[in-house]
Amino acid sequence: MNKQDIVSKALSYFDEGYACSQSVLLAFSEELNLDERTAKLISSTFGGGMGRLRKKCGAVTGGFMVLGLKYGNTDPKDMDTKLAAYKKVRDLNHAVEEIHGTSNCAEILKKHATEADVTERKHHKIICRKIVGDVAGLVYDRIV
Questions:
Q1: What burial letters (b/e) apply to 64-87, b meaning 16+ CB within 10 Å?
Q2: How far is it, in rounded angstroms, from Cα 85 to Cα 12?
Q3: Residues 76-104: what's their mean pLDDT?
Q4: Coil, strand or helix: which one is 30?
């Protein structure tokens, strides 16, 4: 799959109503041999900045999950793999911050949407959809 296919897939999931975190992970699930149901469940509570806590952006945490599946460690003593994966997570986070000024859900919403927009769930179209696409593309660049 190419980058545009992955981005389109993530946006399609988001447009269906999946959380930002789910949309990013689901876009890569086939490539990572992760069954769709498991991907949906694992990432389901990370939307809205982690369970609507408005902390780390859900799209970003979905990207972290993809990086973990691709580069994470399975041996707790394998510090080289663990630290290399952590570096990839920091790199993705930095790239998102370069584009959007932050990777914190509340701060992103404050910059782009009013409280009324969020209450009426308009923020999804105002900013969240764009971030889902951006993160899917950034993750693609890091795993190809």
A1: bbbbebebbbeeeeeeeebeebbe
A2: 28
A3: 98
A4: coil
Give the domain range for residue 90.
Answer: 3-143
The whole-angstrom separation of Cα 11 and Cα 113 is 19
Average pLDDT, the chain: 96
- Total tally of structural domains belonging to the chain: 1
**Residue 49, token pair as written in the block:** 């900045």
pTM exceeds 0.90 for this model: yes
Q: pLDDT digits over 29-79, tens only?
A: 999 999 999 999 999 999 999 999 999 999 999 999 999 999 999 999 999
Distance CA 72, CA 81 (A): 7
Rounded CA-CA distance 88/126 in Å is 28
Token pair listed for 96: 């998102």
Nearest to 68 by CA among 99, 44, 41, 34: 34
Amino acid at 93: N
The number of beta carbons lying within 10 Å of the beta carbon of residue 31 is 16
Q: Which two tokens stand for residue 108?
A: 């992103």
